[in-house]
Design a protein that fits this description.
It is a single chain. The protein is built from 7 helices and 2 strands. The protein is elongated, with a radius of gyration of 24 Å. The chain is mainly alpha-helical. The chain starts with a helix and ends with a helix.
Length: 156
């Protein structure tokens, strides 16, 4: 296993926790929070970390834009569940869906918001620093061992 893979595995746990924590401020039902997972893979000496969540999670930050598509059953079901979780009248889902379809939702109208993106960017920076640090330590050790081995051979 590559050293970078070990680093990514450690940061996968941190990343999932941070994204879930960020989502807590806006998640009505907890489904999005519970869907956040990380996957670390290693192939051809390349390590990769992907943090995933259920479809349309990005709409939490970007909002939902107006659309000419019809209102889907999934949208109605989601709005019912959202209304129930927020203590709202569930019968308003069609009116809410039509408004979103015509105008977009409040988040979209406000130009979006940062919920988890800044956490993901900070995580990426922390991972880069950790991998650089690990590389520097190993490279320095390799150079020292190489020169120390060369010096002991010259003295013999």
């Amino acid at each position: 296993m590559l050293a970078a893979t070990k680093i990514l595995e450690a940061y996968a746990v941190i990343g999932v926790a941070k994204v879930k924590q960020a989502l807590e401020q806006v998640s009505a039902t907890g489904k999005t929070i519970n869907s956040v997972k990380a996957e670390v893979t290693e192939k051809n000496d390349v390590s990769r970390l992907v943090i995933k969540a259920r479809p349309f999670t990005s709409a939490i930050e970007t909002g939902v834009s107006p659309t000419s598509k019809g209102v889907s059953k999934d949208m109605i079901d989601s709005l019912k569940e959202y209304a129930r979780a927020r203590g709202m009248d569930e019968s308003a889902e069609w009116a809410i869906a039509k408004t979103i379809q015509k105008e977009g939702d409040k988040t979209f109208k406000r130009g979006g918001r940062d919920v988890y993106s800044s956490e993901v960017l900070k995580l990426a920076d922390d991972i880069k620093k950790e991998i650089r640090k690990d590389y520097k330590i190993k490279f320095t050790s390799l150079i020292k061992n190489t020169f120390n081995g060369a010096n002991s051979n010259n003295q013999a």
